[in-house]
Amino acid sequence: MRSLGSFVGVTMPDTQWPRFEVFLIEDERKPAEHVGSVHAPDPEMALLNARDVFVRRPHCEGLWVAASGHVLFRTAEELARDPVSQNGHPGEERRYLVFGKPNHREPLALAACLSAQSPEEALAQALKESSAIESVLWAVVSEAELTRSDRNDRVSFFEPAATKNYKLHAEYPTARLMKEIRQK
Amino acid sequence: MTDEARLEAFEARIARGEKIEPGDWMPEQYRKQLIRMISQHAHSEIVGMLPEGAWITRAPTLRRKLVLLAKVQDEAGHGQYLYHAAETLGATREQMLDDLLSSRAKYSSVFNYPTLSWADIGVIGWLVDGAAIINQTMLAKSSYGPYSRAMLRICAEETFHKKQGQEMVILLSQGTPKQRAMVQNAINRWWWPTLMMFGPHDSESKNSAELMRWGVKTRSNDELRQVFVNQLIPDLHALGLSVPDPQLRFDEETGNWLIGPIDWDEFWRVVKGNGPCNAERLEARRQAHEDGRWVREALAAYAEKQKTEGPQGPQRPQGPCEFARP
After folding, report:
1. Top-level CATH class of B3-274?
2. pLDDT tens across A146-168, in order?
3. Secondary element (H or E) of residue B256
4. At what angle do helices B129-139 and B221-238 cross, to 10 degrees?
5. In 10 A of CB A93, how many CB atoms?
6. Which of B173, B294, B323 should one mutate to test binding to chain A, selecting the residue with the greatest count of A CBs within 10 A?
7. Superfamily (CATH H level) for A13-164
8. If you average pLDDT over every residue of chain B, what do you get?
9. A64/B321 touch (CB, cutoff 8 Å), yes or no
10. Exposure winner among A64, A155, B181, B244, fewest CB in 10 A?
11. pLDDT above 70 for A1
């Protein structure tokens, strides 16, 4: 057995893995939502970690991850100080997903899908087209940067949560048992 | 904005019941306190697998084994939720694990006691998870978004932990004299360590005031401990069971069950590393960390290979996102 002190002051050789942003589709009728981030060595592992952190139980239809460096975040405060311009970011035309957070209580949810040459241009376009949408925070990601769960993942990712009844508290009739014992 | 103006805006947001999110401005002390709390909480979930894990191979029926496996697996999942929440504040997984394995970090002392009989599994579920749920229900209202959301998921899952434990205690208490004696003995050993889980008295708790001002906690240690005692005592008595406290009495005026003095010397002895199982628990975590080293190394090597040699293995289909309707 190693002595208790053997780890003191020893720095672990592991280095922090890159961060990935996680988007979740709870239900096909609801827009995708940004739910947080995970650290992982690659996108496949990020998807697995996201499954373990965000959907061990809740109902879920799909999960997407994107390396944090590929997601543009802008707060309303930052936009007021430093507006994004629609021009001056020439690049390849791609489809972008734009997420908005209507207020501090609601989630950052998908607000627009559009084609643009850069995330900045996509955001500028979304702001112009939907000037009625208020948002305290925006996130923009190119569809091509997403790694997405597909039909083959359903069995291992999402179905276990729905089939193991002994994980449900309703399986344990404690209230009825206590009542019966008290009546005796 | 000056720091005073930012602090004012920050406190106003908390007063309005808004959640603080990663990337939002926050006082350094708020960030530090949250990392301390959340990482301790994460370590507790991980170390908490050990006392119960010891009984997986000895569960009396297949059903009880499935239930216990699922519960212990949940604790691992909860540890993941919490490490993730701490990472959103800038803490790294590596540093947090290093702090745990080199015994710089704390975790809930209740897990430094041994599980001596099968009845301990029922009592841990009902008492220890029951106490944790009371604390976590409060933390689900915490002002920090990722912590609050992790707590919501954890509370929803832990309700099953508590009820499977309570069901076991009920059945044992109505069983043979030997089973009744076994479950009473387990309660006698777990009662005081469970009460200590709520932490020192309010007058002794150095972090509480600050945590309450910033909406991380909304109720004090003593308040929560009283909620727990009031919930549990009538049920235990109905089952013909008792707690090892000769001074326990019902106070007509307040409707509270009042307990005798808690042995804080024992509490601090165990917190400082001298409980019955502290060394064993840490050794088990170090062993697990060492045993997992090859997996971490393989993952890193595979990621490196993809970087230098391009995509490996089957690729996911690209194309427009399904359900991408805003």
Report:
1. mainly alpha
2. 999 988 888 888 888 778 889 88
3. strand B256-258
4. 140
5. 10
6. B323
7. Phenylacetic acid degradation B (3.10.20.520)
8. 94
9. yes
10. A155
11. no
